[in-house]
Amino acid sequence: MKKRLLYVTLVTVLGLNLLIGAQIYLNTAQAAEKENIYQQMELFMRVMERVRAEHVDADKVTYQDLVHSALKGMVNQLDPHSEYMEPRKYDNLKTEAEGAFGGLGIVIGPRDGALTVITPMEDSPAAQAGVLAGDKLIRIDGVSAENMTVEDAALKLRGEPGTEVTITVARGTPAEVKEFKLKRAIIKVGTVKDSAGGREFKLGEHKIGYVRITHFWEQTASELEAALKKLQGQGMEGLILDVRNNPGGLLPQVVSICDMFLPRGQLIVSTEGPPGQKPEEYKATGRDQFPGVRIVVLVNGGSASASEILAGCLQDVGRAFIMGEQTFGKGSVQTVFPLPDGSALRLTTAKYYTPSHKVIHERGIAPDSVVPMTQEEEEALLIKRSTGGLESLPEAERAKVMAIRDVQLDRAVDFLRAMTLHKARVGRTSGERGAKLSAAQGSTSAQ
Predict the structure, then answer these.
(1) Do 361 and 256 lie in a common domain?
(2) How many alpha carbons fall within 13 Å on the CB side of residue 223?
(3) C-alpha torsion angle, residues 328, 377, 315, 195 (rounded to 10)
(4) pLDDT digit string (tens) for 24-50?
(5) Domain final position from 334, 354, 372
(6) Residue 259 needs a FRET pair 20 to 30 A away by CA distance; which of 12, 56, 97, 288 works?
C-alpha cells in the first residue's frame, strides 16, 4: 500500500513538473517570438504588400508613404514628445532652433488629452491677439484638433509670413470658446528683458533687480550675465528672476545660468535614461558670481522644461525662493537622430531630476509660496508685455488694464524687501551689541 502511494505521488510530481516546464517553455518561446526582429519584419512586409495589392486606392499610396506612416505610428505611441519627422518637419525644427521661423508664436503640448498652449511667445501674433497659456486647442482653420499630434498641429500653425490662420480654443472652467484669426509672422525670439521689455536693467527700489527670461536659447546665459553685472554695479541686493510662460530651451544654457549662483561641485540637474544606462550629472564649476544676492524665481503653469530645471535646482539647494503657481511638468530629454534621407527621429531618451532627485516630468515644481492670478490679471499682464498691446486698446480699456497689478511680482518685491530690512536690522543689532561690549571692556580695563 505504501509503495503504491509513493508511486502515485512520484507520478503526480513528475506530471506537475512536466506541465510547469511545458508552460515555461511556451512562455519563453512566445517571448522569443515577440523579440525576433526577423519574424516581426516579415510580418510588416506581408502587411505592406497586402495593402499595396488589395487596397481600393493602392495606386495612390507609395511604399514611402506606407513606411513613413508606419514610422510615425510606431514612434508616436511611445510618448507625447517622441516623433518621426519627415524632411520638411525636420527642416522646420532646425529653423526654430536658429531663433526665427514663420508662425503664430505659440508653444503647444499635450495635457489632459488635449493640445494645450504652454505659452504664447512674447511680441508674437498669438500673444498680441490675446491667446493665453492653458488655452485648449479645438480647431485649426475649421479642422478639429482632437486627434492631431503636436507635430501635425505645428505644421498647420506654421507657414509663410503674412498668410492667415484661424484657431479656436477653449478657455477656463466652464469652458469658454474663443476664436482668433491670426496673421503669421517671422517669430524672432528674445530671451532676456527688463521690467519694461527692454534691456536697460535699472535697479528698483530697495536695491532689488528684475530680469525676465523668455526662452533658453544660444545667447541666453551670456545676455543674463551681462544684465546681472549691470545690476550688480548699481548695488543689487535682491533679484527677481521671472520665468513665467517660459517654455524652456537648451539644457547647456540653463546649466550655465544655475552655475552663476552655485559653489563648485554642486549638482544642478541629472538625467536618467533606460535601465542599465549610466545617469548623467551636471555640476557647478564654481562661478558663484552673486553670493550675497537674495533671489526669488517667479513661475506659473507656462513655465516648462529648462525653466523647471532652474527653479527646481535653486529651490532644492536653498539658493532661491520659488513663488507663483505650479509649473507645467515637462521634464524629459529629447535627442534628435538625423537619418540619411533628410528625415530625423526625435526620441525621448531620459528624464530630468532635481538635485534632491525629484522628478520633474508630469509633476512640475511646486512653489514655496503659491500666489495665484485670475484670468483677468493674466490677460492684463500679457497685454502689458506685448509690443503695442496697450496702444491697441480704447482709452477706457487701457486705463483698466493699467490699473491691474501683477500680484505675483508685487509679492516677490515684498518678500525681498522684508529680507533686506531683516538683514539691516540684524546688522544694526549686532553693531550695537559690539559697541556695548567694547565699552564694557574699556570700562573694566580702566578700573
Answers:
(1) yes
(2) 20
(3) 110
(4) 555 555 556 667 888 889 999 999 999
(5) 372
(6) 97
Q: Which of 278-287, 289-298, 375-384 has the lowest mean pLDDT?
A: 375-384
Q: Does any domain span residue 180?
A: yes
Check whether residue 302 and residue 322 sit in a common domain: yes
Q: What is the mean pLDDT of residues 184-204?
A: 86
Number of structural domains, the chain? 2
Provide mean pLDDT across the span 228-254: 95
Residues 227 and 245 reside in one and the same domain: yes
pLDDT of 17: 59
* pLDDT at position 193: 93
pLDDT confidence of 442, banded at 50, 70, 90? very low
**Domain boundary residue, one of 146, 167, 188:** 188
Considering the domain architecture, whether residues 212 and 360 belong to the same structural domain is answered as: yes
Q: Which residue has the higher pLDDT, 357 or 103?
A: 357
Task: Please list the active-site residues.
Answer: 305, 316, 330
Whole-number Å distance between alpha carbons of 16 and 8: 12
Give the C-alpha separation, 19 to 73, whole Å. Answer: 39
In this structure, are residues 320 and 314 in contact, taking their beta carbons and an 8 Å threshold? yes
Residue range 269-286, pLDDT digits in tens:
999 999 888 999 999 998
Which is it for the CA torsion 325, 329, 330, 331, positive or negative?
positive
Pick the closest to residue 290 from 243, 234, 242, 228 (CA basis).
Answer: 228
Which grid coordinates are listed for 32?
522569443
In angstroms, the CA 300 to CA 415 distance is 18
Whether the Cβ atoms of residue 289 and residue 260 lie closer than 8 Å to each other: yes
Q: How far is CA 426 from CA 94, 239, 419, in A?
A: 53, 20, 11
